[in-house]
Give the backbone structure.
Amino acid sequence: MRRRAGLAAAGLLLLAGLARAQTGTPASPTAPQSLAPPAAPAELQAPEASTRPDVDFAYAAYQRGLYLTAFREATRRIEADPNDSAAMTLIGELYANGFGVRQDWSKAADWYRLASQRGDPQASYALAMQMLDGRGVPKDSAGGRRLLATAADKVPAAAYAMGLLLLEDNKPESDRRAASLMRFAADASESEAQYAMALLYRQGRGVEKDPSEMLLWMARAAANRSAAAQVDYGIMLFNGDVVPKNEEAAARYFQRAAERGNAVAQNRLARLYASGRGVSKNLIEAGKWHLLANERGVADGFLDQILRDMKPEDRARSEEAARKWRGD
């Protein structure tokens, strides 16, 4: 199920800062008066569900993108067992994402709250993120943080999010707890937690500074599709920092992150194409990636000059390539 975007975005800003540095009941809308879910649309009423207890048909349908079926199966489960917290969480997820139903963050919060009250850590995590963002519920940073803490030792994504909040406290004891939570999330293959571990080992925050551990986690995060880690690891490879210098490998990591929309990677890749380092020199590609990075706020006078010096037809080809990449 999806991680909520608000804190994740704030976390990337916090982690970027690390990289550069080398009380009461939460307010909420009224919960449903009944545990029965809202009436399903007509198309959700058939066919009959399987009653095999060893198979979670609702979640299996969700994973396959059969969201109407997932809603129907979860609804039936709650009718059979008013304390089925997993089914409540699934319905909350469907409403949160607008899968099979109209997106409704308030209804999502209601269902997450019911499941959280019954001990479902995934629901607690999801509701906490809504409270922290003020999405569908009144913003409640303190209450959201308390709820998030209850899920952090059970849900890797919650551990990562809680770790980010603890790092914001910037105290030795909170840094140590953050590192412990990040390691739990990183061991569960949360790519941004793996990247966070690399930065913590680089800075010596919450852990002893250790270049070997930093390299281990940076490589894992980069292999696990963390664009920020791919940029950092690419820079390390290009400069021969901690790892043997390898400009071709650096270019491959920049390419991967650039294709995922990372503006810094797009800028670095443009420079490599402009100079022919790690890749064959290609001013058309250099112009394309520079235009894309520039649109995202990465200025570069060197590449601006290359664009100005290009033949009009070559610049037009770079612009067309950028438009094609954007899907315009």
